[in-house]
Amino acid sequence: MITNKYPLFDPGRCVATPGAVEALERAKQSPLEFLRRHIRGDWGELPAPDQEENEIALEHGHRIFSAYYTRAGTRFWIITEADRSVTTLLLPEEY
Length: 95
Prior knowledge:
By secondary structure, the protein is α+β, with helices and mostly antiparallel strands.
């Protein structure tokens, strides 16, 4: 896992699904907390092979995927599209 002080990529436009917004509000956490982690290479709760895929994606311009838990225990994802035009926060069931 790469964890940097500075962003590794531009996330583009950042959006969130209703479920992700509700989960973060319920946990009293800001989406920025997780977006900062995502763009700095902290992929959260991903298995090693998925983290390795993100490292490759950084080099080759593929989709970047992270998974996190709120303090309330809700799992959610952050996905940055391959063209870096948009980054979406969403619950797995909203995919």
